[in-house]
Design a protein that fits this description.
The chain contains two helices and seven strands. By secondary structure, the protein is α+β, with helices and mostly antiparallel strands. Strands 1, 2, 3, 4, 5, 6 and 7 form a seven-stranded mixed β-sheet that branches. Helix 2 links the parallel strand 5 and strand 6. It is globular. GO terms for molecular function: deaminase activity.
Length: 137
């Protein structure tokens, strides 16, 4: 038995704007720091490293702080801020031992979030954070 499918094409009605600021951690040419669609900024993953791609010395608190500062810088370039984050995903290498330590620093963002334990993160960092934030006009 053959069935026919009525396929309709999808057309974007909104445009997406890519965000880049030299004040934040640089990304490889195939990536973007963030993108804006409608009234939201969608942040790429951020880890706790320097602009030279060296891990911030110290434990998970220092890496969390560095990742949040990078996120803050990119959000500012996009017209938003940490206080406008509506959803964050946090990936941790050792969630069992380091969740409380990360949370001490993360509380400055006060955003809805989920945390997931993972086996590997870039540069073997302890944490990676990505988020969606609202742009207020």
């Amino acid at each position: 038995m053959q069935t026919s499918h009525n396929l309709t094409s999808f057309h974007k009605t909104k445009t997406m704007k890519t965000i880049y600021t030299p004040d934040a951690l640089p990304v490889l040419p195939v990536f973007s720091q963030a993108a804006i669609s409608s009234d939201f900024v969608y942040m790429s993953g951020n880890i706790g490293c320097t602009k030279e791609f060296k891990l911030v010395p110290g434990v998970v608190q220092a890496q969390t702080h560095a990742a949040l500062e990078n996120i803050r810088t990119i959000l500012k370039a996009a017209g938003s801020d940490l206080k406008h984050i509506i959803k964050a995903n946090i990936y941790m290498m050792d969630m069992e031992k380091e969740f409380g330590l990360m949370n001490e620093v993360y509380m400055q963002a006060y955003a809805c979030r989920m945390c997931v334990g993972v086996k590997y993160l870039p540069f073997s960092t302890a944490i990676e954070i990505k988020c969606v934030a609202e742009i207020l006009k």
